[in-house]
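Customer ticket, subject: "Can you confirm the structure for Ribosome biogenesis protein NOP53?"

Message body: Hello, I'm evaluating your service for our small team and ran a test protein. I'd like someone to confirm that this is what the system normally returns, since I don't have a reference to compare against.
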Amino acid sequence: MASGPGSSFPMKVNVLAHQKPNAKKLRRAAQRVEQLAAKGVVPRSQKRLLNSQPVDRKVKKAETQANNNPERDFYDIWEQETKESGDPWYLQQTGKKLVKRPEKLNEKPSVLPAVEVIAAGGSYNPDFFSHQALLQEAHEVEVKKKKEEDKIEKQLAYNKEDRATEESEEEEKEETPKDDGEEVAAGAIAVADKKTERQRKKEKAEKMKEKQRLAERRQTEQQQQLFQLRSIKTSIKQQEEKTKIRQKRRKAKEEAQKAQPRRLGKLKFQPQHMEVQLSDELAGSLRQLKPEGSVLTDRFKSLQKRNLIEPRERAKFKRRLKVKYVEKRAFREIT
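Agent reply: Thanks for trying us out. I re-ran your input and got the following:
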């Protein structure tokens, strides 16, 4: 029943009207934020708001200029680096910003030119001295190959007289003497006698004397080195000069190796055979000149020499029928 002003009972209060949903959870979250703020830690949600840039809606998009406008900026379509147009922060967040290319990738794998010009002696109508110089170079290459082949044959060669036979094995068996029982007994391990106390003390005293002698010798050498400062300085300068000379040699060797093919695979690079014509094979005109070599092989060897591909071997297969080479009638008419 309702209580009036004169009644002794208090008025009923609605408890649900003063309660808030998740009040305890919100209070704990507010306390945690205050504790982090006191330590100087910014919450993740606030950090996102600080990092995000406000978008200005009033700014209009840049109007694209017509192609026939003479006042437009010049743009090179063959340029290697692309021009980044746009906000750098936007490009970074969207992942559209290009990664900086390492400087090492811009270096060429070899300093050799793509097409090497043959010497003057390799022309179809060379002068005498240039042709002789080319022949001398080809001769040195063949001599080097012959020496390597002779060296391998010499290492693999053997004397036929030193070959083992049944008779020689029987003679060796007869010459080997038989072991007697006395010799076996003499070779047995002898038990060492136990050392006495006096012998152990004597050995200990000798070791102490040896250590003392070495320490005195080391101290004497250190004192002598103090009086050899000039000679020590001279030796240090000599070592520094030798080090500089070695560094120069190493640098020169590295520069020379840049023009040499590197080991890219399991096979070693084999240079192409020199295409040289003898004096009696020289043609007087282009009509009489016979084709030599292969352009495909030359390009393939050039790629290997410039470290663009690794040296390879041709796949081995068994041909059933022999290849027959025939000169066509048109080729015979030219020659």
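A couple of notes from the result: Confidence is low (pLDDT under 50) at residues 1-5, 184-188. The radius of gyration is 47 Å. Feel free to reply with more questions.
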